[in-house]
Structure formats: structure tokens, C-alpha cells
């Protein structure tokens, strides 16, 4: 894609208004906190106290609305502590420019590294740094800054208090949302015509991450939800087996059975989400079991049998006390045992501390960009008296919030935030023309804050329109500055957005160049997982299930990074820098899903009795390991692998062992026939991926940049 077309496409995406909203109760709590802060200012007849308390409540309220995975009170306490602490630090370094800029660089770098924990934690880190800039940049002196920090802390305290008010949702609300979304995706995938619908790993990863956040003392009561994740793993494998052994046809029996499966999964999703039982009608179960019992293959019967434990666990999840008597689910033993959150966080951040990491590059860009933006903002001054002079707050804030680790997100946010600020400046200027009483200003400020909360997830354009207007009214409330202040706010935002885009382009991180490294990393995981699964066919219990569970989790994580990089690469003006075209990248994404599906089915049909073992398959372990090792190096550009080598080895093995002949004439066992079919499908999938990797048009090595 060329530069012009890339900028136009991403700019259009940045200006798009999305229909995404937070929970109404969460929005209501955030608005109530801002209202309490505003009322406090009116009662004290202190505009500064009311404005700073409103800022604290507003910023902390945004932090509670961003994809909460922990309890709302925990989120609010964390945001309140971080934001208030940074505000105090900002007040202490006020007037010492070099110390402030040094502290700002360190805080921005730490925030950039924190982005490795996810999008929402990364934005919360940016919000905390805003507290540092507010008091260091806008306070009149150290004493005034400490007073501002105190009122900010009061505002954040209101946010914590309102989280304690009813209505109260079910316990483990974030975990319930993730599991409900997982079962909803299974319901949709069970009736989808596209087999790739069942291959989506994102819902499983989201559910794992949500459950992994639970402290150890909360895990026994949540045992039913851990079990639901384990059963979801089994149900997906059963659905994939049905697609392999009994493909969906136009037969009414198949369609009715799949519709019944989707209804059961949908009812499980609703039960888990609400914490109240949504029982599937008994006639649906009767229809499902009668249709699957008539199937000539075992897959549909196994699927129907596995829906019952999931439904029972969903019912048990509605009563926390029943979870205490449940044993940990055998499907996910490593997840239930868990790792202390501090150690897990430190390990994830430590893994990013190298120059090739996109998160490390993002952290460096953020640290440099915010400091440069602060200096530029202070150099600009007050736009000829329209703005607040001698500070770079808005330029630095915009640069920090626009800079993302990816090209597409950075450009889109730059367009959307700048356009929203300009439109908000126009609107704020119009609203500033009438004379407002202090009470009127307070009412309008609360309404505008509420509009910002409602539009928080609809895109940068709408959010910044209302945010700019709200800020202008706060400035009126504090100092009675003229309406044209809105234009200075908009101009600072445009400068900050342009600076963020410029800094990214000076030292970019192209997803196109990251694809080879991510693909090689994913292949290295498969190099451990697939041989481990094939070894399991030698004897009952030969496979280490805990090791397989850990490898599956790692495979999902890397695969999601790979799929995201492929998706982001389509918008980049850098296709010529990558080893594969956009069409080839889509082929790779599809073929990776196919190999992952084969691994899932190999694990699903591991032998459970000595009669089910197929020890001959262990002969493939060595050749498969060698091929995947070489393929990982080929993906990274270190060497080339000729397609067909693994197929040749497999054909020789099949002819020598006689398994293929037994499977074709029916003389062998059904288990052996299924194992041969799965291994054949796996070899085909790996060979297809090999052919695409070998088609790279640039022979030189591409490091994961």
C-alpha cells in the first residue's frame, strides 16, 4: 500500500464513530463521582477545589471504565493511588524544570513498558502520568500544587466511594463476562459455515487472562468457572471433531442438532453472565440427544455428552458456596495453580527489555516524545494570549495519548484526536458566548463530563469533542478565562498529535517486519507441542497434560500476536519491506489456524485405553521435529525449506507401517484409523504452510523489528 492511500484509509478509520459503550451502571457511578466533586466546590465556594476534585474524579472514573478485569473497587483504588501519588510528585518538582522533565521521561518510559500488560492497563498508566503533569505544569507554586493534589485525591476518593454503592453485580463479574463471551463464540461457531469460526483463540485467551488475575484465596470459590474454561476447551475440540468426521450438510437432522447445540451453549453463556440460571428446555436436550444418537460416527455423541457437565458447572457458578467443594479441573491444571501476580508481571515486563521488542521501542518513543512535546508546548507560549502561557501540558498530554506501539493506531488516533479537539473548540466557543452563573457552569460541566464518559469507547473524534468542551468550562469555572481559550486547547492538541505521528515515523515499528519473527516463534512452540502429542499415542498417559496445557496457552498468545501483526500490516505503507505479500500473509494466517486445529484434535483423541494406542506414530516425532525446527529458521529468513520433504517421510512411514492400508480397508481399529487421518491432516497442513513460507520473495533475513 502506498503512503497516500495508507494515510487516507487510516484517517477514515480514525474518524469513524463506533457503537461501543461501557456498562450503564459503571457510567452512572463515574458521573455521580464528578457530580459530588462539583457540588463540593459549590458548597465551599472554591472554584479551584471543585475543579481539581472534578479532574480527579473524571480521570479516575475513566480508569474504572476501561475494560475492567478486576473488581471495580480494586480498579478504583489502584487508579486513585496512582493518580494522587503522581499529582503529589508533580507538585514537589514544580519550578525545577530539569527535575520535572527527568521525572516525566522516567514515568513515560515506565508507562510504555506497562503497555505489555494490555491496552487498558497501558492507558491507565498514561492517565496516572497526567496527574504528574497537572500539578507540575499548571500549579502556581509548590504550596498551590500540593493543595491541588489534595483536592485531586478527594475527587479520586469519591470514585472509590461510589463503587461501594448498589446495585451489586454477581461475584467475579469480569471473569463471568469473559467466560460468557467464550461460550457465546462457541455457540456462533457451532452453526457457522466457516470452519475458521471455531479456530478463534482470542476468547479463550481473554478467559484465561481474566481467571489468572484472581488471587489464590479466591480460586476455590471460582472453581466452577475454571471448570467452565476446561469444558469449553473440550467442547471446542468435540465440535472440530464433528466437522472433521461428520461435515455439516444440508440434512435437516444435522442442522437441528447444531441448532440445539448452539441453544445450549447460548443458555450457558447467559447463565454465567448474569449469575442467574437460564435452563435449556428439556425438549431441546431430547432433540439433541436423539439426533446425535442416530449418527453413524462417535463425534456428535461425544459432543452432546460434553454439554451436560458444562451446563451443570454453569448452574454451580450461580452459587459461590458450591464452588468450594469442586476439585480443580484436570483440563487446565497449570492455570488453577497459578503464579503470584507480582512475579508474573515482573516476568512479562522483563521479557520486553531488549531493543527489538516493540513494547521497548514504544516506551522509548513515549519517553522522548512526551519530553519533547513538553518543551515545544512551553516554547509556544499562550498563542498570543488565548491560552495559558508557560506550560506544555496539552501538547505533552496529546503526544502521550496518541503514541501507540503500532502505526495504524497512532495515525488513526492522531487524526481522530485532532479533529475532535477542533470541533470541540468550536462547540466550546459557542457555549462560552452566553453569561453563565457558577451554578450554571457547574451543571453544564457535569453534563459534558457525562457525555465524555458515554462516548469514551466510541472513538477519538467524539470523545475529544466533549472532552475539549468540558475542559474549557472547567477553565471558566476556575479563572473566568475568555472563550477563545478553546482555540488554544485545540491548537495544542493538533501540535501534539502531529508530533506523535512524526516521532513514530522517525523510529517506526512495522508490523510487516515483525511477522517473520512471530511466525518463527509460533513454529518453535509447535515444534514442542506436536511431537509431545504424537508421543502420547505410544501409551496411555504418556503425555504430560500440564506441559501440553502450558504449550497450548503459549501457542495461543503467540498466534494472537501474529494475527494482529498480519492485520495491522495491511494498513502499512511497507509491504515491499516484508518477505510476503498481503495475500500470502492471509494464506499464512489461515494455514496457521489449520495447524493449530490439527494440534487440538491430536490432543482430543489421545488414547484412553491400551487398545487405543498407536505406537507406530512415534516414528514421526523425529522427522516432524526436524522439519518444524528448519521451518522456524526458514520463517525468520535464516534458510530455506523445500516443500514435500515431510510428505515424503510420512508416505514412507505409512507404507512401511501398514497403518494407511488398514485405515483404508477397514481392517484396523477405529482408533488407529482416526489417528492416521489426524496425522495425515497434520502433515498436509504443515506442508501447505511450508509451501507459503518458501514462496518469500526476499531471501535476506528479516529480524523481528
Brief sketch in words of this structure:
With 705 residues, the protein is mostly helical. It contains 29 helices and no strands.
Notes on the protein architecture:
The chain has 29 helices and no strands. The chain starts with a helix and ends in an 11-residue tail after the last helix. It has 705 residues and is an all-alpha fold. Residues 248-252 and 698-705 have low confidence and may be disordered. 72% of the residues lie in helices and 0% in strands. It has helices at residues 3-14, 24-44, 47-65, 72-92, 97-114, 119-138, 142-162, 173-191, 202-212, 223-245, 252-274, 282-293, 299-316, 320-323, 333-337, 341-350, 358-380, 393-402, 407-432, 438-454, 460-479, 485-506, 511-535, 545-569, 582-604, 621-635, 645-657, 659-665, 670-694. Helix 2 runs antiparallel to helix 3 and helix 11 (252-274) packs parallel to helix 13.
